[in-house]
Write a structure and sequence with these properties.
Helix content is about 65%, strand content about 5%. The strands form two sheets. It has a three-stranded mixed sheet with strand order 1-2-3. A two-stranded antiparallel sheet has the order 4-5.
Length: about 190
């Protein structure tokens, strides 16, 4: 049976009962659901609000905003990790990286890359996590506001520490402390550390 992800997605968007959607999906016979957007969904694919996660991942392609696409894919990956499907989560995270190219906002880009690194860590992919953190550090250099740059540096340092990269984490924290001392606004200072 063929089910179009966009149809399911629009049914959800137009506030139809999510249980009715889930019942419709569960009613479909066979081991696999073939999706018109060239996505094959295993019958045991984890679901969110009754809709297979692969549909959510596929539907992000229709979104025009690359930031929304990346964030949506990160959320899908997070749900795959929670469902114990870490390989699927890693594939979704890999595709989320494509949507980070050309962002105008270096701060948002850096923080999203930290979130992607966190999800890679949860999916037991430390090499990809480190790669995402290295890319985040490149974005941090382009952040104009010192408090945002310092906070992003602290977030990256925290993730490096969780990966066991203590020397790298300490070095980044030293940079953040030095930068934080130059921040004059007391609120911004306390927000960072």
């Amino acid at each position: 049976a063929l089910v179009a992800c966009f149809t399911v997605f629009f049914m959800l968007v137009f506030s139809l009962n999510a249980r009715a959607i889930a019942a419709e999906i569960d009613r479909i016979q066979g081991d696999r659901l073939a999706i018109l957007t060239n996505v094959t969904i295993a019958k045991n694919d984890p679901k969110f609000l009754g809709i297979p996660l692969a549909c959510y991942a596929s539907s992000t392609k229709t979104e025009k905003n690359p930031q929304a696409q990346a964030v949506a894919l990160i959320e899908v990956a997070e749900k795959y990790v929670k469902a114990g499907q870490k390989d699927r989560a890693a594939v979704v995270l890999d595709s989320s990286l494509d949507y980070l190219k050309g962002w105008d906002d270096a701060s948002a880009n850096a923080f999203v890359r930290v979130k992607i690194a966190t999800e890679y860590m949860d999916a037991d992919r430390p090499k990809q996590a480190i790669s995402a953190l290295e890319q985040s550090l490149l974005q941090i250099k382009a952040i104009k506001k010192a408090p945002d740059r310092t906070l992003a540096t602290v977030k990256v340092a925290s993730q490096y520490a969780k990966l066991g990269e203590i020397k790298k984490a300490n070095s980044l924290l030293e940079q953040a402390l030095t930068a934080n001392n130059k921040i004059e606004d007391p609120y911004a200072k306390t927000r960072v550390l």
